[in-house]
Request: fold
Amino acid sequence: SSNPDFEHLLAFKSSSDASNKLATWNSSSDLCTWFGVSCTRNRVSRLVLENLDLHGSFEPLTALTQLRVLSLKRNRLSGPIPDLSNLTALKLLFLSYNDFSGDFPASVTSLFRLYRLDLSYNNLSGHIPSTVNHLTHLLTLRLEVNRFAGFPESAFAQNPGLCGSPVLNCKGLVNNPTRPGFDGAIASPVMPAANPTVVASSPSSLPGNSTPNKSTNTRRNGTSKISPEALIAIIVGDALVLVFVSLLLYCYFLRNFSPKMRQGKSSSKLLESEKIVYSSSPYSAQPGTERGQMVFFEGVKRFELEDLLRASAEMLGKGGFGTAYKAVLDDGNVVAVKRLKDAQIGGKREFEQHMAVLGRLSHPNIVSLRAYYFAREEKLLVYDYMSNGSLFWLLHGNRGPGRTPLDWTTRLKIAAGAARGLACIHNSCSPLKLTHGNIKSTNILLDKTGNARVSDFGLSVFVPPPPATSSAPRSCGYRAPETLDGRKLTQKSDVYAFGVLLLELLTGKCPSVVDSGGPGGGYGGLVDLPRWVQSVVREEWTAEVFDLELMRYKDIEEEMVGLLQIAMACTAASPDQRPRMSQVVKMIDEIQGVVGSPSHEAFDSMSESPSLSEDTCGASQ
Ligand SMILES: Nc1ncnc2c1ncn2[C@@H]1O[C@H](COP(=O)(O)OP(=O)(O)OP(=O)(O)O)[C@@H](O)[C@H]1O
Reply:
């Protein structure tokens, strides 16, 4: 065969497959059809050979330079792990449950694309090299049940709850120090700063930042008895937290959920009576008040204020700046009208100048401002009406039976469109450095072709920055840490908000209310989405991060992890570390390139192992 991988696969078969489990591996058929082999552009990109009684070394496989996934778990492979430095495309490597011996394979640490590495249940020994830290994409590292050693005492320093080898033995503990797990506790060299927290599967149940070690250790050691007073205090405390959380959630949903419910289109189960349809206009135009002027931007069919006043208006929802209506004009034209109410607008000239900037923006991924009306008593903004609702509705509306899940391809398409829209806002008026200021899922709307469009841009200038202590639900979960003290919104704070939006798309969870600001501040029992995701990922529970709705789709783990990495970069604590939106667009495009390609590598969805879900995840995208 002309395939350069051919001879290496056959060499591996002849050296390691004594029981002929790889019977389909023969020269009469295309190697891309062989058992366990998948190809991309006619090169082996994925090799999953699990539980096949393979033995010896897998040295010949290290020449498969296009491999992205290699799983050889549950075989009898032995000897030192061969040099893997040629496998530079490798992203997932599973070698667990074999008989490998010798040192930690140092060559692995040059595989910079790697995000899962499982060497558990082998006979490896020696030190774990600190170069593991070079694997910046690594999300999972499993080394348990080997014979690794060599953590210095300093690696465990200042953790009063840790005792046993290599730190001092525990005083006064009744536990049997010989029980498994008591000594030789393994600290992760990958995340030296990580607290060994117990990670919950839901953001609301994540333990607070300040005391995770103490609580878990107390529980594990089982030695401390809780006094009745402490018990009462805990119960009362829990009840108070519960009441507080319920209140917050109640306020949040009262304000944010109900308007969106009204917005869901055909899928909406709303009663007609719930729609607020005005026979007369909601906008004030009392005779005698000052007459303003409708100002139109290019390419819009003009109409008069009277036309707007005559139009039937349906309330879409109340936002931070006022109320939005859908207005159907007499000629059938449909527009969205935003009535600025609580906005702090300076003079007319200033307003007009700002509107002129916003009105110039035109892009397939933004909701264009078509016109505005300015009078002393009334300020209206007229936008294109987006008939397919908002991302908020698609993600969170109508959860439960009968809901149509938002599939992965659509989520990725929305992410890409929204990124493009935001990049356009950031880049099109370069000297002005325009910011959106209010990126969130209710402001990502879907047009009639299903394209994502960013709405509501540039209005944050009319709203004073919320005070540091504010927990106003307006955009709370999306607010970058540096803006919590009331500092100015910037393009980098938009990038942060966009990162939260990506996490919302990936997790299906609503960004929660952050209850206290400031670096190192407590979170009062509620944890924000970036923080929750970071802690779950750090603790190797990556699969738990993703929206359960996405479990049904096959072959998407790589894209999801890719988007997760972008989201985490966008939500970096320091604004300087966040990418620019133009870079984000490119990164998402790269992921989409994988999705769109017909040779898209087939590897399975959410499981840690690439083979686990092959049969169970039958649904396609
Ligand atoms: N052009 C539009 N077409 C269709 N629906 C829209 C349009 N603009 C806004 N909406 C919807 O109207 C509702 C209210 O929007 P509005 O922008 O006033 O508030 P918000 O997005 O909830 O909060 P904020 O004012 O902080 O942006 C939202 O559900 C939004 O998705």
Observations:
- The two ends are 34 Å apart (CA to CA).
- The pocket of adenosine-5'-triphosphate is lined by residues 259-260, 263, 316-317, 319-321, 324, 336, 338, 367, 383, 385-386, 390, 438, 442-443, 445, 455-456, 474 (CB under 6 Å).
- The CA atoms of residues 123 and 146 lie 5 Å apart.
- DSSP finds twelve helices and 20 strands in the chain.
